[in-house]
Queue: 2 jobs
Job 1
Amino acid sequence: MTSRTAVFATLAMAAALACAPSAGADDYQVTFSQGRTDDDGALRRADVVASLTPDADGRLRLNRIGAETGLYHHWAQFILQFEASDQRGRLLSVVYEPHGVWRLEDWDGGPVQARYSVLLQHDRFPNEPGDDELAAATPFGVMWTGRALFIEGAPSDDVDVAFFAPEDWRVTSPWRSMDSDALRFQPTNTDDLLDAAFFAGMHLERVVELNGVTAHIATGPDMTAEADLFSDVLQLYAAEYAELFDAPIAQPPVIIALPGSFWGGGVIGRSISMTLAGELNDAFAPMARHVVAHEAFHLWNVAWRIEPDARAALEWFLEGGAEYFTVRTGARLETVSEEELYEHITRHLAAYEDARVSATIAEAGRTKLENQASYDLVYSGGFAAALALDLRIRRESEGAYALDDVLRYVHGRYAGDGADSLDLAGLAQATEETTGLDLAAFFDAYIEGGDAIPALEELASVGLCARAASASDIDACDDLTPVQSAARASWIGAPDEH
Ligand SMILES: [Zn+2]
């Protein structure tokens, strides 16, 4: 623990020399231990010592995206004790302001040292967004999300985090490793520290090279088959997505896949977390592959600048679009068979049809986690909309353009740092600008309005038909015209054919 004192002394000096209130080096030290002896034996307690600078109002917080958890005090629900002292070691008077905010009353500037403990109980409450984006304990270690563990003050781009764990533990994170023991890391900044997940324990770790960046996969100790599959999928799809977005993965991702009671996945920054509810057999492998490929797609679109108010109306494009491009990429790579492609389309069109009358696709984004119909409108309605839009653009431009061009434009303009941000009107405008087609009516009728997306009509252009028995049961049409064959080949032809 000597480094903490050293770092703190350096911090104090730096702060004394530079009187600007901006944050200097932030340093976090985390020690894992068993919370209660009568518990399940997992190391559910994390003691954190954080050296950081409060924000301009003297506040520290643990509330990032915490409102979605359903926990009254957000992530701070599980904080056991909290204290802070200033550079001179003087204990500061702390006022807790719900939810998850601490105001340091007599703080007079400069970095502080905060000490607190968190009990990992997040996996024991019914939560949204679900265990896959929370923190969870297993017999072989613990998954934490940065936002549930690390307090933040003024943003910093000089962040260190060190873990003190049992001898046989290691930590798998998306951050740059600073030592061979993989216990010290350097996130790029405060956002990178908080919008992340990591696993600490005796898990299986895989290292995957993706075009110059190194990705890590953490799974349960006996999930070798899963780790192999995820590694393959990540390599295969990341290369395709890099072409689709015309941009490489900027920073290496981490995948954390744990056994659980449901199938699910989420993305936090560049961390993909997944819950697998069964063994990887022939029935589950395609699903697991699909979840990784879908989440990998988010590694690009998660970088788009979107104001909180504008997000709901774009959820269909973020989620349904991810779903559509995941399936289409799989069909091109032939990891998704023709039969599976028809199943994906059938499943989404049927779910969309059932949910359609409940709300518009744009409205549904607001309540996607609250009811099944909204969820289906976002994921399946969004899939149907992205599919129909892609095929419409291809048909009307006679193959000159595709939704891919829109995606590329949006990514080029809205990913990373910049002033303007994406909203639904901006997306509609981008669609017209990149394709030269008049598609305002598409957005008006099917996204902001509740008209039924004419997916069947568009699918016919690439030789897909509904079976007579059900309008949403999709199969190949009996006879394809040369125009349909050519359109189909350019739509889901092998990657080197488009
Ligand atoms: Zn998603």
Note: Residues 102 and 356 are 44 Å apart (CA to CA).
Job 2
Amino acid sequence: MQDKKFDIVIVGGGILGISIGYFLTLNSDANVLLIEQEKNISSHTSSRNTGKVHAPFLYDPITKKIFARIAFLGYSMWETYSNLKGIHFKQDGVIEIAKEEKDILVLKKYFEWGIKNGLEEKDILLLNKEETKKIEPNIRCNGSIYCKRDASVDYRILSNSLKSDYLANGGKILNLHRVTRIETKKDNNCIIEIITKNGEKKIIDSKYVINTAGGNSLDIARQFGIGLGLIDLHFRGEYWLAPKEYEKLTSHSIYSIPKQKNFPFLDPHWIVKADGHCEIGPNAVPVFGPYSYNFIDNLRNFIPKTKEIFVKKGLWSLLYNREFLSLLTNEIASSFSKHIMIQRVKHFLPALDTKKFNTRGTSGIRSLLIDDKGNFIPDTLLLKNSLSMHILNYNSPGATGALPLSAMIVQELIYEKVIHKVDKNNHHQLWNIEDIYSNIKL
Ligand SMILES: Cc1cc2nc3c(=O)[nH]c(=O)nc-3n(C[C@H](O)[C@H](O)[C@H](O)COP(=O)(O)OP(=O)(O)OC[C@H]3O[C@@H](n4cnc5c(N)ncnc54)[C@H](O)[C@@H]3O)c2cc1C
């Protein structure tokens, strides 16, 4: 790479980083570089997820306002983009069930949230036990929400398509380079130190930094003095692949009302993927690092993470919380025991036979932010200063919301004169980013 000076550097090439790059290069002539530590973009959470374009009924319109807005807008944007590119977008709907009678009240609340978040009554139905049985005869439940406006996709394929568009529009990518340090200079520039896999150091100069480093985003933000009171905890979501004979067991993915509702984890679901194969998962096993897919990496992160947790006194109240500890115990148990994991779904899909599950799926890690009082932060956080923007706590439905959130961020940078608008978007009139911005900021 010849160039060492950029208008904008994006740190992290997951689905969010590449979507921001896509909208930046469609709407401006800024010289943009995306830095990704892996060989390929979207190698972590963005390809290690359930692959759903989530409907917004799970998100409280007040405490999870951004997630709710971007989930609503994400559906039509991914549908439009997939159709344009000939990428599979399977509009298959989803069923959320009440395992117990008392969960019906939660379904009603979800229904209301869905409508408040923009779903129309034709898209979302509240069904009783018998009505659910007619759609999914193999499911055992007390009632359900059937949402038709929900889809299955492969976010790795979508990310790669965005990458091609980004490169075609003049964006640049530096793979296999990790950002290790960022310093801000008096002349309003950021000096970014990067390192290759074999330890070679380089320096890049940028007028502005966008931090989309997923599980590392809090570390990058701290380099700007941002997010200092926060801490991140990492949870590995594991899956089991279902045998082929179960592919016709249901026509929809089936989610259930989580047992513990005070924490941001869903119970494992029955998942019908975009290509038709089925999986069970994810659970949420606490791990020490954002890439702790295996024992060795987990062990490597054990000491630094424990030290960090130890000094954050606010976190102790969470660690003393009996409900949280019981949740952790269950999740850890479901990591070690296939039986416990499958049982969580067998409860509502009794035809499953644990012995027939022999292959683990690809696990993904979510990094959740906790505030200084030990509370999970419910929504994504967009924090910034004059030289940088940081997208933190970007969890599910983050893949669903990547296009609308990116369009919003780029419009914000135009309003703030960080970049100048040059519309290369006009020829196919795909997106009106001013409308998307107002829709999210509403
Ligand atoms: C188990 C699981 C299931 C999920 N299912 C769904 C779903 O069905 N639907 C949905 O909408 N969402 C889902 N999500 C959430 C969704 O996958 C994430 O919100 C989304 O992928 C986050 O994208 P990202 O680009 O912010 O992060 P990432 O995909 O983690 O990308 C960040 C990138 O930054 C790079 N990076 C980090 N640090 C550095 C550095 N210092 N230098 C250079 N590069 C760096 C990393 O290598 C990585 O590629 C799920 C998440 C999990 C964990």
Note: The longest strand covers residues 201-211.
